[in-house]
């Protein structure tokens, strides 16, 4: 008789636990990281009365957690990849908005500047057109400065977010380590039964961590896990937490790198390729800095070509043209880790060879190596680094202040500072060199019909450039320059002397003379301005194959393509992540309809068990009543 | 697959957010009427649009340039046409002055008019453009190019010729230097010039040089163009070359033609024995010197037949020079006309090119409104369907049925 009571009580307890579990599931239906729990029931062993064995009721063997390690790992990985792409997309979209517009911005400023040069060519003595050119030059400089300061802001933002990420990683790692210990203790206390809520909590911490940085884990026998980041750098290992810190880049104090506080502050930035942190580092290295360099390359090209054209012409007061723009020269920074104080100075040797990449110059075993940071390949160097024989490569000329210590390295940034330092240094519009340096004239006493073309300046540095030279025809097919040796004349052939070149065509008569000399006073000449106005379409970069217009177009296309690629990858990864989430949810999530059904099921089971108890009680009463009747 | 409530929520939110973002993108395209707003929308097209935009701006600049050149060239053409009418008046004066029977007073009046024409010509040669630049100064546009002297005018400019870019690789001069226009005018008939001897003794006869021409260019080119026609007697002449060798002799009658070495010279009047005429290749002479010479030729002198002949020779020389100058002006104006034609052609080419570039840009970046509006409509429908579907399924919960 006592059996029915015992059995019913086990059932009531079990169903109570089941209802509690279902209630808990419902309560946590929206709790992030909560895994649906189920009651594990088992029939109690039967009690034998000698002839038959009757079941002994039910007992709760444990509360199960609906959990798939595989699905969870997949979700964590997908979250790391998505976190990386989200961070990248944030910056590539900002850059695309900044530079990827075809109207306004840099393109327009550039076109207005060169058009203004044409206007000066149309009215070379007009102060208004010259002043307008200087204003356009100012707005071009402003455009470069604004864009590069926006890019600097993005780099600042990257630094701020790196610092925040590192703080978050440290606190998550600490929390994981703490939960690890609680799980270890809890598992031991409950006789091997895992404390589900603690596991959920740890999984949730891992999930948060995987959004910040890609992680891998191993599970120990005692229920604790070890967490690794990057190339297997331990973050949580056997209860030990490695604190990460941010340190300044060895070359550039304004860029933060990630380091493990232990092991002498190893910089591990290079191995962090996923999660928000990986995305920030990638945005800096593949989106922001390359854009800054390319912008600098265009700025350098404009400044160099405009200034050198200026130097070939004469301004309103007959002086050779002063520079209109100035940009910072390439920067070479010695590594903080260098063991001696040797410094490097870099200048541009050849605009056509200049790239938008950064380089690392290293000195080891008595030899210099220059490595392109973008392609990671070595560039052929010539020279020995002395002022007399500088190291030359990639359009650069590098001079070192001495012999560096073995293992010293220098970061060479040919164009990184150019855009931000691009400014107008000319203030007096009369200094614009619209006129050519030399002019030609034919003697009025000439009897032949030969004509001389306006000479062009080939070498503005020639000291005799402005000295008048007389071309005298000693015969119909021979001429001398300043009485020098006779030279053969061909109609339309080039005649060069003292840094200029001109053409005489037609039939000269013996004794005809032509003079080429200074154009000082030729303020109405526009030949230099004409050349300057056309320079935007002249191939000056990439060994003369890329013009300034081309470079800007390819900057726009490149940034756009990068942003598009990142957008596509981000959408794809979002879909993968939704799948991974769905797959985790389908295992671990709470479905309220399901819980409602369970609730009904357990409620009914509970009612039934209670009914069984009531039946037992009534049986007992019946028996007592019968026995009472017998004995009274 | 097992679906959970929080999954439904998060997937619904993700879907709605994506739909709204697409809708915003389409709205942006429609409001900016461009198929992409930043390069990420279509990187290759963005690069091409940038190139086309630059080319368009350049083409527009070429039109600006050619307008500037057109203004200067029209100003120059206008000045030169006024020079032409001044020269015509001068020519009429010279013809009038050549009449015999004019008094010194009449000649003096003509000289005064010629001097006025000289001043008019000077003003025209010192024409300034809208920017205050002297049109005929070459590169020295800030210096007044011509100033009168006792023998003509000095040219203070240079021989530079300013070019203007009116098309890709196409430049044209937007002016001509004053030296080429006003100072380099050939004397005589443009090939050679026949004059009385410059130094003493002057001719004593009344021979006046008439029309001259090259009858045989090859023969003319074989010599050096320097000859002297010497009258050994009133009816006889001999021609000597620059080595003083006699190359031709002949008899002369008034109005007759003397031919030698490919040259024909028409003489009238009666040259005296010992009179001579020199033949020399044409040289460049300033227009202002021509006028000055004319004025000098009109100075009062003796009324002897010989000095009248001398004056006639001088005026005939002036007439030759004026004709050469008129030719020169016509040539320069023809050249300007050619340049103005190139400008017009180039402007029409630029117009076509700009239309083409604009159509290229709009085919790359322009928005297909029909497609965009259809897309917008679809996106709108999808979004409202999604919202409605959510609202309807939200009521579905087993708890609602367990009462």
* Beta fraction of chain B: 15-25%
Radius of gyration of chain B: 41 Å
How many helices of chain B? Answer: 9
Mean pLDDT of chain B: 87
- Cα distance spanning the termini of chain B: 28 Å
Biggest sheet of chain A, in brief? 5 strands, antiparallel
- Into which percent range does the helicity of residues of chain A fall? 40-55%
In terms of structural class, how would the helical and strand content of chain B be classed? Answer: alpha+beta
Uncertain runs of chain A with pLDDT below 50, 5 residues or more? none
How many helices of chain A in DSSP terms? Answer: 10
Radius of gyration of chain A using CA atoms only? 41 Å
Along the chain, the helix and strand elements of chain B come as HHHEEEEHEEEHEEEEEEEHHHH
Largest sheet of chain B: 5 strands, antiparallel
> Strands across the major sheet of chain B, in which order?
6-13-8-9-10
The residue ranges of chain B in which pLDDT falls below 50 over 5 or more consecutive positions are none
Overall, the morphology of chain A is elongated
Strand content of chain A: 15-25%
User: Which structural class should the secondary elements of chain A be placed in?
Assistant: alpha+beta
Q: So what's the overall shape of chain B?
A: rod-shaped
Across the major sheet of chain A, the strand order is: 14-21-16-17-18
**N- and C-termini, Cα separation of chain A:** 23 Å
Description:
The complex is a heterodimer of chains A (about 625) and B (about 400). With about 625 residues, chain A is of the alpha+beta class. Chain A has 10 helices and 32 strands. Chain A has a 5-stranded antiparallel beta sheet with strand order 14-21-16-17-18, with no helix packed on it. A 5-stranded antiparallel beta sheet of chain A has the order 24-32-27-28-29, with no helix packed on it. Chain A has a 4-stranded antiparallel beta sheet with strand order 5-6-7-8. In chain A, strand 5 and strand 6 (about 225-230) form a beta hairpin. The mean pLDDT of chain A is about 90. Chain B has about 400 residues and is α+β, with helices and mostly antiparallel strands. Chain B is built from 9 helices and 14 strands. Chain B has a 5-stranded antiparallel beta sheet. A 3-stranded antiparallel beta sheet of chain B has the order 7-12-11. A two-stranded antiparallel ribbon of chain B has the order 1-2. In chain B, helix 2 (about 45-95) runs antiparallel to helix 3 (about 105-125). The two termini of chain B are about 30 Å apart. In chain B, about 35% of the residues are buried. Chains A and B meet through helix 2, helix 3, strand 24, helix 8 and helix 9 of A and helix 1, helix 2 and strand 3 of B.
